[in-house]
Design brief:
Layout: E1 4-9, H1 27-47, E2 52-56, H2 67-82, E3 86-90, H3 97-103, E4 116-119, E5 125-129, E6 153-159, H4 175-179, E7 185-189, E8 195-199, E9 202-205, E10 221-228, E11 231-232, E12 237-240, E13 244-252, H5 259-276, E14 281-291, H6 295-300, H7 302-316, E15 322-332, H8 337-341, H9 346-354, H10 362-375, H11 384-389, H12 395-411
Parallel strand pairs: 1-2, 2-3, 5-6, 6-7, 7-9, 13-14, 14-15
Antiparallel strand pairs: 1-10, 4-5, 8-9, 10-11, 10-12
Length: 412
């Protein structure tokens, strides 16, 4: 069997909508990142002369799909076809086949009626796969995947959570279900973090091609696979293709006497983070942590603190290299709470009250829930209003409230 290489990518989420960004955000830079990452993927496929490209679902984002998005995808995939690089793709929960075929057909897309086998022309390979017909696909699609084709390198192409937490459990299965098919490689999609579930055969989530928000940290890209003598020759290689990186950065300001000392630590931490970003545009959510005398100044006006941190960031990098998405103040005052807790009178009572769980008034929760409905999905999944509507106080919000009160106590 001749040697060959192929690329495995998933979860492009082209033109995924931006939510929760303030007016200072480089919205155009963020919006175009998914497109630029796709261009890099196609460039890599051509440069490395791969035999084919596998796309394991969620090429589009169901909340943001129009003719321009579809045309851009097809233009880029057309570059591969002109280079005689084959494409095999499936639709996932964000781009079920019914939605795709209403507008523009994607080259190499597999059908949704049943699993199918596609024998490739450029390599001795059989790809077995099935697209989603509807978004909420809750059956184990892998059970019906065809038997391996003897004499060929067999690949299973599937959009599934495969037991990974933190994702909707679509097309549920586990690695044992996949191993049973005796395929040589499983190309999975849906999980946005790169995960290798097994090595014999290789069962791989490549992660998404480009991170979309701060909860998707770290290097993003595709997986390059080399096959020799009918087997994966070396461990599949993660190839970074993202154009911007997201990072949640905790900066310890313990003992900082004032804002200038805090900002000195901020500059140092951001400068180090830039070095680790591999020349990518870096979008950072900064959280200031630690007990310090500067707490009162930091917590009194979170907006002013955020702008001071952004100004510090501007000193070390230009707007094309670094964006501070938000600044969270999770510091605490330098107080001896154990001593204060034992004081008689108002101070001791206040400390004890602050240590009790916060409760949400039912009328407030109902009001917030009504406002969320009116917002029609405009809030991020981790927005504190969603927890309040459910009658809960997010831990970070409660901590900030306690810190503000303690800051005033520290000021006397």
């Amino acid at each position: 069997m001749p040697s060959f290489t192929f690329l495995h990518a998933a979860d492009l989420h082209l033109d995924s909508p931006l939510r929760g960004l303030d007016p200072t955000a480089p919205a155009e830079r963020l919006r175009l990142a998914s497109r630029e990452a796709l261009v890099r993927l196609v460039d890599l496929a051509i440069q490395r002369r791969v035999a084919f490209l596998l796309l394991a679902g969620d090429l589009y984002d169901s909340r943001q799909y129009d003719w321009h998005t579809g045309q851009f995808l097809i233009q880029q995939l057309g570059r591969l076809l002109r280079e005689n690089i084959e494409i095999v793709a499936i639709a996932g929960n964000h781009d079920p086949l019914a939605m795709l075929t209403r507008k523009l057909a994607v080259p190499g897309m597999m059908g949704a009626d049943r699993p199918e086998t596609r024998v490739l022309a450029n390599a001795p390979v059989a790809v077995h796969g099935q697209s989603y017909a509807i978004a909420a696909t809750t059956e184990n699609l892998s059970h019906a995947y065809p038997a391996r084709v003897e004499g060929l390198f067999n690949i299973g192409l599937l959009h599934t959570a495969c037991g990974q937490g933190g994702h909707e459990n679509y097309a549920p299965c586990d690695p044992a279900d996949l191993i049973r098919h005796r395929y040589d490689y499983w190309a999975l999609g849906h999980v946005h973090t790169r995960v290798v579930l097994a090595r014999d055969p290789w069962i791989v989530f490549p992660g998404n091609l480009q991170a979309r928000h701060v909860r998707e940290e770290g290097s993003k890209g595709a997986t390059l696979v080399t096959v020799e003598r009918g087997r994966v020759a070396v461990p599949p290689e993660h190839v970074p293709l993202d154009v911007l990186r997201w990072l949640r950065l905790d900066i310890d300001v313990t003992g900082a006497a004032g804002e200038p000392a805090v900002l000195t630590r901020v500059r140092f931490a951001l400068d180090h983070a830039m070095l680790l970003a591999e020349d990518r545009f870096l979008a950072v959510r900064v959280t200031l942590v630690g007990a310090c005398p500067a707490h009162a100044d930091l917590a009194r006006s979170p907006d002013a603190t955020r702008e001071a941190v952004r100004a510090a960031a501007a000193e070390i990098a230009g707007p094309d290299a670094l964006f501070v998405e938000d600044v969270r103040v999770s510091t605490s005052p330098s107080l001896d709470l154990s001593a204060m807790r034992g004081q008689p009178g108002a101070v001791g009572a206040l400390i004890e009250a602050l240590e009790q769980p916060f409760e949400i008034d039912a009328a407030l929760a109902a009001f917030v829930a009504d406002q969320i409905r009116r917002a029609e999905g405009a809030l991020e999944d981790d927005h504190p209003a969603l927890a309040i509507a459910a009658g809960n106080v997010p831990d970070d919000l409660a901590a900030r409230a306690r810190a503000l009160v303690l800051a005033e106590l520290a000021r006397g």
